[in-house]
Records
---
Amino acid sequence: MLDYHLHSTYSPDGEMTMDEACNRAIEAGLKEIAITDHMDIDLPDNKAAFQIEDLDQYFNDLISTKNRFQDKLKVKAGIEFGLQDWTLQEASRIINAYSWDFVIASVHLVNGEDPYYRYYFNSRDKIKSYTDYYETILMLLKDYNDFNVLGHLDYLRRYSPYEYSLEDHLIGKEIIEEILIMLVQKGKGLEVNTAGFKHYSGQPHPHPDILKWFRELGGEIITIGSDAHSVNYVGYETARALECLRYAGFSYVTSFTEMKPVFIKI
Ligand SMILES: [Zn+2]
Ligand SMILES: [Zn+2]
């Protein structure tokens, strides 16, 4: 059992220390975790910084945590990089400056607009709210390679004020497929983000059918992450994520060491 998406107090919205995350993971019976704090640099509109303040300290703390827990839990040095088109070069520089085990590339902003807030949806109907987001992912990842998996692909659902329907994952299907094909061609993976299970749709991010499309298009690299910001959600619904992966045709999940994938049979 693995959890490859966890935020500690190095994230502005993180509520658990690295030690607390590790101790909770052990209690929950996890064998391996990746701590992946937020690095969203150069946010527009003078928004409060949403990033690790001192990367050297963060990385050193990851290594000492890894060493301290080595007999009980595998701890991987990770980061969740929030991409924008004017930060890609700096993202690459930061990723290459440290020996990360695992990097999640996430898209949290659409041309500077944040779907976490209602205003994003006010100027877009339901379809456009999704397709603008997917097109942004496609555009950002086209020339960017310093990552292992794409984070929470359809996470817009978490914040959407539009009523959820069972066909919502079909919105923008062609663009989603382009994203998935691009990931396959680049040798990159997709994350199953179990925070999606908190939503009333009861689906992970992305929807299990999207996982299936990824598999059918040749996708092999898959990580499972809770996106927990507090101890309550470490390892959240991992068993359900495994069910979705079996449904989608996967027989392996992926762990990473120094950004190299290792496949673990499920
Ligand atoms: Zn994220
Ligand atoms: Zn996250």
---
Amino acid sequence: MKTIIIYYSESKKTKIVAETLSHELETDIIRIKDKKKRNRFMDKITSSIDAFRENKTEIFPEKVDLEEYGMVYFGTPTWAGKPAPAIITLIDNCNLQGKDIVLFATMNGSGGRSAIKRMEEKVNVRGARVVESFTVRTKDKTPGQLQEDSENIAKLLDLSLFSN
Ligand SMILES: Cc1cc2nc3c(=O)[nH]c(=O)nc-3n(C[C@H](O)[C@H](O)[C@H](O)COP(=O)(O)O)c2cc1C
């Protein structure tokens, strides 16, 4: 069974992590877009409130057909100690029955673990089980450093054991 990495990224840090892992582990990859505008200065407050309250949002694609995948990664930035609304919305739209899941959250400094815990609760009730999870600190890191950190995580956690 194949592996897919599904991620949301607003300012491209989670994107770098997801793309590096996809390259290292030779997986499929898909980026979920949030149709709500979130990149203006004031949007940080509304986005934090949306994440904290677990408000759903309009996403594209609305769902991903996971029929051919045995292993699914979900990656998200940490927003107010929670997963981004786009990833919560997507998880709730997918059939995860019987899937093995890897979860990751990028963050400035804290809250990544609680974001992962919330995603874990969500995937568990949908019949999937989490086999691995990790956080990545992104604050003040260059794209090159983030890429290196992601490669190291893949090696350290032996993530290649889980794919393909
Ligand atoms: C709305 C919002 C809320 C955030 N809340 C947190 C937080 O609670 N803890 C934290 O460490 N970082 C927080 N951050 C920082 C992001 O989690 C971090 O920069 C992340 O790596 C960004 O990923 P991205 O570039 O893929 O969007 C927040 C950022 C935004 C925009």
